[in-house]
Structure formats: C-alpha cells, structure tokens
Task: structure prediction
Amino acid sequence: MGTTTPPRTLAEALRARDDESLAGLLRARPDLLSPVPGDITQLATRAGTRASVVRALERLDRFALQAAEALAVAPDPAPYETLLGLLTGDGQDDGEQRDDVGAAITEALPGALGTLREQALVWGDDDRLRLVRTARELLSPSPQHPSPTGLGPTVAEATAGMSPGRLQEILAAAGLPATHDPVSAVAALTGLFTDRARMGELLDTAPTEALAVLDRLVWGPPYGEVTPNPTAPVKWLRDRGLLLPVSTRTVVLPREAALHLRAGRAHRTPEPRPPAVAAVAERDPQAVDSAAAGQAFLAVSTVEELLKHWNGGGPAVLRAGGLSVRELRKTAAALDVPEPAAAFWVELAYAAGLLASDGEADERYAPTPASDEWLEAPAQERWVTLATAWLTATRTSGLVGGQDAKGRALSALGPDLDRSAAPEVRHRVLALLDALPAGTAPDPESVLARLRWERPLRGGATEGTTDLRSRIALWTLNESELLGVTGRGALAGQTRALLTEGPAKAAGLLAPLLPEPLDHVLLQADLTAVAPGPLERPLAGLLGTLADIESKGGATVYRFTPGSVRRALDAGQTAADLHSFLATHSRTPVPQPLSYLIDDVARRHGHLRIGAASSYVRCDDETVLGEILADKRSAALRLRRIAPTVLAARADPTSLLDGLREMGYAPAAESADGDVLITRAGAHRTPPRSAPAPVPEGPPVPDTTLLGAAVRAIRAGDDAATVVHARKDTAAPAAPPGALPRTTAAETLVTVQAAAMTGSAVWIGYVNAEGTASQRVIAPVRVEGGYVTAYDHTADEIRTYPLHRITGVAELAE
Result:
C-alpha cells in the first residue's frame, strides 16, 4: 500500500496509491471522471456511489465476483485466509470439493483480489480486507434480495430484537449453559454453529426429516415458510436455533449453520478458471480463407443488389420510423434471401452509410452519395468497409420482428434497434475465435459459456428467455458466416488481419482470394444468358437492365423478356445498341429468337406517347387508339379521344404508363417538347448523409493524456485540501484544516508577486462571481492590472484571477 500505517478509509487507501494505480482505477471505471473529482476524498465518495459500484460489479468476471460475494458474507474486515477459506472450504466435505479446484482457487484468488483492489471495490491490507459499503449492501442477503451465495443473515442479525427468554430456551434446547446476557447468548449460539465437533454432535441427534429440511435450505434460498403449528422436524430445528424466525410465518437458516453444512464454502461451485472454448472441427486454414472469401464476395454482391433495387427511390419510411413488414418481405424476395437475412443486409448498408432516408415530404429510403464511391472501389475494399461498419455498429438486426418493452414491434431501420453492448460482444466473440488455432471452428455453446463467465451480471439483463449478450453472441456467429468474417465456422485469415493489423492488410490478403470479374456471358437459345462468374460492373449493370436474374450461385442465369428489353429501351438504349452489346460480350453467337425479341419490342416501343394532360396518349395509328378505348381494362384510366391521334386521361403519366403496359402495349413517355423521356436507374439519391453513430455504452474509456491530466488535477486538489500551510507570522495560530487562508490585500499582492518571481506555488482562497469559495494551489506567472495569471494545479490549466476575489494566500510548507 506504500504506507506503514494501515488505511482507515477508502480515501486514505487511494491517497497511498501511486499515479499509475490511480490512472488504472480511472481507466477501469471511466464514470468516475465525469466530472473530474476535485480531490481524493471526492474520488473515494464517487467510487462508493450505488450507480458506480453497480457498473463496476457488472464488469467483473465470475470468479472476481464470487470473491466479492464471499467478502460480503465474511466478517468486516476479513483476513485473506478467511476469504480463501470461504472459497475453498474447510476440506470436511467428504471429497466433494476436489483438490485441483482448491489449488486453482488458491492460484487465482490473488489476481481476482487485485482486480477488486484496482477497481476500488476492496481496500485494506491482506490482514484487514474491506469490501466497500455499497458493494456489501448490494451483495448481502435480505428477505427481499437474497444473497448470490444463498446464505442468510448471521445469528446476531437474525436474533436482533428476540426476547431474552426465547434466547434462553434456544440455549437450553441446544445443550448450552444459560446466560442472562443477550450478547453472551448470541455469542454462545454462534460458537456452537462454528464449532465443527459440537455442531456434528448436535446434528447427529437430529431427526432424518429435519436434516432433509436443512438440505433444502443449505444452498439457498435460506428462507422458508412455516405454519402456526409446524411439523415436528421444523419444530426441532426452530427450538435449537437452526431455524430462526424472521416473521410470524418465515424462518431462516443462519449463516454460521449453513456454512457448517456447506463445509465452509460460500459457493456451491467456485469457478476460478474460465471455461475453455471447445472445438467442433479442425479445418484446413486455406479452405477456411477461400470459403470466407467466397462469402465475402457474395456479401458485397448482395449489398450492391440492394442498392440497385432501391436505386430509383426505395420503400417509404414508416411514420414511427423504419421499414414496414411488407417492404422488408419484398426486399427479401428481391434479394432471394430469408427475411432475417434481408434485415441484416439492410441494417448493414445503413450502418455503413450507404443507405438513408431522403428527408423529403414523402420520405423514402434511397442510396446515399457515398454509395456511388463505394461501388467504384475494388471488391476487397468494399468488403472491409462493410466488415468494419458491422464490428462497430450498435444497431442489432437480430431484434427485428421482436417487441420492445412497451410491446411495440421492432422494425428494420427503426429507432429502437441500438444495443450498446453489441460491439463489445462482437469483438469478444471474434477474439475468442482468434485465440483458437487457425482453421478451428468453435462450439457455440462453449463460446456462450465463456461469455457468461466473463460478464455474469451483464448476462443477467434479459430480453426474452435468453440473456441479451448471449443472443448477440449467437447472432454474431451467424452474421460472421453471412458476411465472410468466418468460413465454415472458423475465423478467416483476412479477418485476423483486420482485427490486429488494420483494413489495408485485410484487403491485401483478401484480394488474391476473390474471383476475377469476367467480361463475357454465354447466350442460350432459350432466351437466357449464363454468367460463369462475377461480371465487370459496366457489363453487369447493363445486363441487369436488359434481362432479369433467374437464378444465382456459382453461375448466374439471366432471362430476356419483353418487359426486360423494354426496360433497356426506356433507359435510352436503341435496338442497334443492344445488338452490338450482346455481340461484343457473348462468347456464343447471338440466338435468332433473342434478336427477333429485341427487334419486335423496339418496333413497338414509343409507338404510343404519354404526356401530361393530366396525361395524354398520342399515336399516328388511329386504329391502335380505338383498340385501347374499346378495351374494358382501360376503363380505370378514364380515357377519351380529343383528336383522331390523341387520347386524354385523368390519370397521371406514371399511372397511365403502367396501365397501358399491363394491357400489353409498349408506350414511351415524352416531354413537353415531344421528345422521348429516358428513364435511367440511379436517378434518386439522398442528400449527403453520415453513417449512424454507434450508441456508446457508458462513458468512453479516456486516453493516456486525459488520464494523466486527471490524476494531476486530483493530486493538486488533494494537496490544496490536505497540505500543511506555512504562515509568515509564526505566532499566529495555524488555520484549521479546510479553512480558507486570510491575508490583507497588501500581503496577498506581495506574496503572489514573490511567487511569480521565484516560480513557486502558493495556496490561495478564492471566491468566484457566484459567491462559491474554494481552495486552489497556483503557480503565479504574471501579476498586473489587478489580476494574477497562474497555472492552476487543481484545474491543470492556466487561469486568471482578480486579486480582489482572493481571500488570502499562504506559502506551501516544504
């Protein structure tokens, strides 16, 4: 501890630490820095507040938490040997506690105790260990909040308020000498329960049914209900103090008796070692990397297809935010994936800043300008962008389809999908996979068991039947395979590089594993085209416009239809352009049926012209317009002939176009000048949008610079509050601790001027404009114009103070 005198308070224990140890405390518990404590006493007070202690306990692993729980039921203070005994037991449990577990506890306890000390949950030397009061209250037993150890109150706590006469009856039934002093009576009963020999003799006389009652209570909960006329076994236990009354209908097994029955152990199953992550398969690392690379390429292609699908303006934004169930289902069908996978891809694109709402009155989702830059990047860089966004995102797509705390459905892209624990869990799961040999696929259940050991209290925050951290971990394993972070269940080499060496290294390792884009397709006589691999972007873009994707896999099959050809013509292509495109990029001759299809659709394309009247149809062939008017399907368009070659409609041009196309015609839209309007994909983009910022989990961990400044400020404030101050007038009485120094204005001016000349620090009392008084340690730099400019050690910055607000000044003692 750095001192020969044991600390009497947590503040004294913290004051005895060195700067590195204080920085370690602030790093482990960053909530203590908001705002920076004024001195060590404030730091100790804040470290003992309920909210801060709860956060600290949630960050403990299972064994460190078990050590804290054992201290909560141990005497205060407790020596190290007592704590060790509560964890290992007294060895009288007939071999139930294995020797290897006891050795593991003995080996692991110093580290767990060091963690508790570092986080200021435990203080004091090994012979006087103290758990901070708030932690003891949180972990101590009570009828409303049973102890995590399953132990009840002590004999002294359970008999508080019991009449002396009742205590005498218990002593007599237990075979103990009578005493009229209640304190002595409690001590005698406690001594009986802690004496292994005498306690064994007492239990040897117990009825078998009474021992069965004790077996039900020994590992908790220690409370039981009794009737006004209890059974004989319960009465036998109650008469001898093995069950003590809590209320008229409730009894409790006292802690000392339970510890005897447990062979001295506070926990049924101490867990000093973290459970190992088990392997289910050992695979060739190269095969793992190749499988992951193939999935990574598919992930990039899927996000590309999503952006293309929403290119001209995606689905509408719900009033409450998010994507409707119907639109998610349509997106899943377009991507040919299940709805949960569609939600994952949509959320991933959103997290990467590739999708956002356009902010218009009729708000819709659409690609962002950043998506155009992403599409132009090499495939390996695009995958790194997606993987990095996934690692840091707090949005959790696995929640889509569930309900929030108020019973409202959670929708994709909705406002309630952020879970601040998600990034930490993802990184931890991948770190566990990274620790396995290359090519090793882990057992998911063993991964969950390890995470529960590392954060047992955090795992207690449940959403549904399984704790949230475990659900996020399972989603992480599934999403890793979807995204190509893992291959065949094992962590890929490029992912290891991304986690340890950065994006550039990961992209470099992934690039050779990705398939080379092709510049050709194979046209078939059945109006299909086969792409034997990934296509170059310009080829894939135009082919995706000219044909519909029929199937995906190692090879992609495209089908040409009248609708798909018309779509290409609407995008500004001519029949000659399409013939040339197919002849250039096909390794097989262009089939005659495909040429006929293109020519036939092109001949009819634009024969009808659509404009705004609300809208109109014009055609040089009067017969065609007559057919349209005679067709019953055109009734909904409310058409009427206004000239031999013109029909007017009340429907808007878009609805009129769609209606005539459903009737089998191939109209083209035209401008006010009579020119054919070309509709191109990708016309709709949102304004520039940044990717959604992850929701932080508590205060951020401070960097080294901030920690150093905070420690210096706390030390300076502590010096100002506790340092012995020198006075020039030795006859004058010393100022009481904490009181502001008092000097005349002339003395103040002379002292700060001298300090400025010598570069020394002084102690001042200062009253700000709001009338708040404080003590500060400053090093004056300049004194002029009624102000003193000085380095304030307390605030760790340069400040200027009006001299008239300084109540007094004193030199610091050597």
User: Anything to note?
Assistant: Residues 309 and 334 are 8 Å apart (CA to CA). The two ends are 24 Å apart (CA to CA).
